[in-house]
Structures are given as structure tokens and as C-alpha cells.
């Protein structure tokens, strides 16, 4: 069922985003011309003056109260990483990325120490800590190793992607990826196969092929095919 529709022939809904209040926002750039190749850039039909922004809410459901992010103290920002709303956590990490790295890392260590291991979202909170380190370009091998062996498979998959981007700054990255390529969860194996494509050695191909020791799906098959095509230049 459409969320919104219009009989106006110039209705052009684009760029949907969820706002900090939980509402769905999108732009209607309301233009009779929708192509660039079919019409001259100076076509007088191009409307550069009009447009609308729509805000869509769920009937009977209260909106969220956006937390204070801009200018908030670092400990307060770190606590926002516990929020269930992805957009809150995303904007929080942007704010943290603008803060002094030493101050953020020091506060992060304290924050990690105060987390409750019995909390149902503990693994995700630890993953958020790893991402904060990544945003600040600070390699934390101990935390990375911890998340690669997380009990939560999606956390292991996310940590495997971080390993990919830290591959030139951690010890034995291919050895770590080999373990991930044999993980019981397909999402982790897929990330390991993808990560192997970033290397330029025959050993990386061997790591990717480890995934064939486990059940395949179309996503793994495609990723392995692309990885092997990328690595074939280094296998001669």
C-alpha cells in the first residue's frame, strides 16, 4: 500500500530519510522535466523555484524526542550509542568523530568497563565501541579480536569488515580471515571472502576458497567469484 501518492504529473518524490524524531521525510522536487539526456539543461520547462518537503508520521504513534547530540559531553555521547535508533547512534558517532581522539579513546575505555555483560545488547554495544575506534582511525587489536569471536554472528561479520580495513595494521590478517572464512554463519564467511579481495597475494585466494568447505548461497557464490576475479592477477 503506498505511503503517499499524487495525481499531480509533476510529483517527484526522492531522497527519503528518517529524521531524528522518527518521522519519514522526503523531497518532492516537483518538476515536469525528469531527464538530463532527453532535455537541454537550459530547457525553460525546468522548474528551479518550486518543491516540497513531506513529513510522514504513523497515526496514533507519538514521535521520538531527539536527544541532544551537538555539543554534548563525551560520556553522554557514548551513552547514546546504547540507543535502539540507528540514526541516533549514527549522528552520535559523527559528533564523536569531531572530538579530540585521545579524550574520546580514554572515555571509551571507561565506558566499556561500565557496560553490563548480561545486557541483551551487550555485543552490539561492544561493536559500537569498535566502530568508534575505527571512526578515529585507532587500531585496537584486542577489541577487534574480542569482536571477531563474539557470540553474535552479525557482530562477528561487522568485525570482519573492520579487520578488512585494518588489514595493513594488524598482525596476521590473513590468518584471522581464514578463521572467519570457516565461521558457521554465512554472513561472516561472506565478509571474509570479500575482505580477501583487498589483498594482493596468492594466499588471499586460498583464504577465500576456504569458504567452499561450507554450504553456499547465491550471495557467497557471487562474492567468491568476484574475489577470485580480482585476485587472479596475483596468482601467476
Compact overview of the structure:
The protein is 46% helix and 7% strand. The chain is mainly alpha-helical.
Task: Provide an overview of this structure.
- By secondary structure, the chain is mainly α.
- The protein is built from 10 helices and 3 strands, in the order E-E-E-H-H-H-H-H-H-H-H-H-H.
- The protein has helices at residues 74-80, 86-97, 101-113, 122-135, 141-148, 153-165, 173-181, 186-196, 202-209, 218-231, and strands at 13-18, 24-28, 52-56.
- The chain has a 3-stranded antiparallel β-sheet, with no helix packed on it.
- It is globular and about 60 Å long.
- The mean pLDDT is 93.
CATH H-level superfamily of the largest domain: Leucine-rich Repeat Variant
Rg computed from alpha carbons, rounded to a whole number of angstroms: 23 Å
State the CATH class of the largest domain.
Mainly Alpha
Strands of the widest sheet, in order across it, are 1-2-3
What does the overall shape look like? Answer: globular
Please state the structural category.
mainly alpha
Question: What's the helix count?
Answer: 10
Q: For the terminal residues, how far apart are their CA atoms?
A: 54 Å
Beta-strand percentage range: 5-15%
Percent of residues in helices: 40-55%
Q: Could you state the order of secondary-structure elements as H and E?
A: EEEHHHHHHHHHH
Amino acid at each position: 500500500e503506498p505511503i503517499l501518492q499524487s495525481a499531480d504529473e509533476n510529483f517527484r518524490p526522492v531522497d527519503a530519510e528518517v529524521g531524528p524524531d522518527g518521522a519519514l521525510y522526503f523531497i518532492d522536487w516537483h518538476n515536469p522535466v525528469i531527464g538530463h539526456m532527453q532535455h537541454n539543461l537550459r530547457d525553460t520547462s525546468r522548474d528551479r523555484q518550486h518543491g516540497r518537503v513531506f513529513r510522514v508520521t504513523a497515526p496514533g504513534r507519538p514521535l521520538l524526542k531527539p536527544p541532544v547530540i551537538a555539543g554534548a559531553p563525551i560520556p553522554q555521547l557514548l551513552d547514546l550509542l546504547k540507543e535502539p535508533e540507528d540514526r541516533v547512534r549514527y549522528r552520535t558517532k559523527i559528533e564523536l568523530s569531531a572530538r579530540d581522539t585521545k579524550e574520546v579513546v580514554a572515555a571509551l575505555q571507561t565506558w566499556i568497563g561500565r557496560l553490563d555483560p548480561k545486557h541483551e545488547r551487550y555485543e552490539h554495544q561492544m561493536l559500537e565501541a569498535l566502530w568508534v575506534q575505527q571512526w578515529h582511525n585507532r587500531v585496537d587489536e584486542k577489541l577487534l579480536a574480542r569482536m571477531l569471536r563474539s557470540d553474535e554472528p552479525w557482530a562477528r561479520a561487522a568485525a570482519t569488515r573492520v579487520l578488512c580495513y585494518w588489514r595493513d595494521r594488524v598482525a596476521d590478517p590473513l590468518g584471522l580471515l581464514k578463521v572467519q572464512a570457516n565461521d558457521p554463519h554465512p554472513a561472516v564467511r561472506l565478509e571474509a571472502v570479500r575482505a580477501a579481495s583487498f589483498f594482493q597475494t596468492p594466499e588471499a585466494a586460498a583464504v577465500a576458497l576456504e569458504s567452499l568447505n561450507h554450504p553456499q548461497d547465491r550471495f557467497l557464490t557471487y562474492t567468491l567469484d568476484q574475489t577470485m576475479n580480482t585476485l587472479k592477477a596475483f596468482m601467476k
